[in-house]
Amino acid sequence: MFMNSKSRRVMVLGGSGVLGFQVARRLARDLEPKTIIIVSLHQSSMRRSLESLRKEFPKVTFDGAWGNLFLLSSWRGKSHKELRTVHENIAQMIADLCEAPEDAGKKNLLNDLIHKYKPDIIIDAVPTAPLIAALRERWDPEVIARDLRSQRGKRRLHDEVRLSSQTIDRIEHMLVYQPLPLLIQHVRILYEAMCDVGTSLYLKIGLTGMGGMGFKNPYTGQHDRVLNLKMERTVLAFGQTGLLFSMARTPGAPVVKEVKIGALVSSRMINYRTVECDGSPVGLFHAKKMVLGDKLPLSTDVGYARRGDLSMVGIQTASAGFITQGEFEAITTLFQMEYLTPEEVAHTVIMEIKGYTTGYEVITALDSAVMDPSYRAGVLRQPLIAEMQRLSDEKQTPSVALGQLGPPELSKLLYEAWLLRTKFRSMKKVLSADPALISHELENYLLHHPIRHTIVSIGIPILLADGSTLLRGPQIKVPTGRVKDELNVTPETIDAWARKGWVDLRPANMAKWQERIEAMFDSCKNFFNVDASDISRGPCPAETLRIGEMVGWVFNNDPAIQGFRVKSF
């Protein structure tokens, strides 16, 4: 049970929506946490929700925040429509997409709110996939391609293409509103922030993208005019599920759950109101007769008298917005999208928070359906390693690393382990030697061994013992950046780059390897003498000097890396 006391703080993202509000009500009624934080897109809806909740549950403390969780804190209250008209804003969005998540996240509203309130539990009822997919509407690849073809036809020189400012704006918008980079950035910011504050549970109320129907779903909204945009919603909806599945298997991450909805979710909020589109009232116009000719303008304001605003009776839904009686009857007909109440969703969410198995939690379902490592593959592993070693010896070419698998840190560690094994033969000799001597011996060995050319050719520099001399090739993988970048070098940056992806021959790194090898010996020594729960992740037979297993042990047990598999049995 995640909620076993009344001292918890629960944040409900999208807490003023149809789903989020009902979840907040059930939280207050069934669990009575210390504080419930309602986060809404608009300040007015946040205030209405807080007023209603405080009146209904006077014993629970409610707090609120508002703003667009996909934007910077400094842009709170502004819409994408407003932001995209200012070039500096677009330039800032492009720069943020290129930054590391930890840097971009520091300016993000979602990051700020999580750090401010430090929630123990986050319930995410924001319709992430539809919101990000809607941003895709802000650029049209066909229009951009037509602009480019037009400009190419006007060029005077062979390699000269002059783009209009309008075309440049469209291309910049295309860069900013790419759905997948936005989704990835959003999830990574969320993950980093939750890890920082120690959030224990993240529960997403997700969508299927098609409302539980297939490609021919006729109810996917006015923005989904073509099948590709409908499918994009599905890709984003299940793409986020995939990212959450990976987050759930990440060491140090909170418990991750997702309740996914495959039907229309509608409240009981029926009223007569003005119909809005993109936040503005839809006009009611006098019908005008026209004779069809050669041309048919799709939009015109000329000659149409406005009678006022369009108003109608309808019901509020979670994903389809405000719909009419006729639309509600059609969409909830048997074998259509059909209908699910927000109270049922909220009940499922509360049951999952309490720790009950509802059968509607997607991450657990995926976890049980995914094929994990097998005993058969484990048996076959050893002959494969032996054959690669035999062929490597025959060709007299060490098979260490290519730099294409994983981060450069993997290649760096493998080559350092290979140098220790090849030069010293025995790990006990490594432990008994002075780190400065190890450093000197490895440098001498490497400077006379052709493997140094292999190392630098795959983009891994070699930092020699003095800490200021570098062996390198034409390309360097760490630090990352554009090819023509030149970065400032300081002792701090040298340490960071060497730790992440340089073969580091300095004495300090040799001392670090001695600590690791000592711990490896201890893990083997205690294997048969302690309870199984006390064994480190994978005892490493250090004396057999298998470099891959040594590096695997480092990934499993180094707290600064935490690169191990959470589900291993």
The CATH topology label of the largest domain is: Rossmann fold
Described by strand count, sense and barrel closure, the largest sheet is: 6 strands, parallel
Report the uncertain regions: none
Fraction of residues in β-strands: 5-15%
Top keywords for this entry?
alpha/beta, 3 domains, 569 residues, 22 helices, Rossmann fold, globular, single chain, four-stranded mixed β-sheet, 13% strand, 17 strands, 47% helix, six-stranded parallel β-sheet
Structure description:
This protein has 22 helices and 17 strands. The radius of gyration is 29 Å and the shape is globular. The mean pLDDT is 85. The strands form five sheets. Strands 3-2-1-4-5-6 form a six-stranded parallel beta sheet, with helices on both faces. A four-stranded mixed beta sheet has the order 13-12-7-14. It folds into three domains: 9-139 and 177-269 and 333-369, NAD(P)-binding Rossmann-like Domain (Rossmann fold), CATH 3.40.50.720; 270-294 and 303-331, no CATH class; 397-557, no CATH class. The protein is 47% helix and 13% strand. It is α/β, with parallel strands linked by helices. The longest helix is centred in the middle third of the chain and has 22 residues, at 227-248.
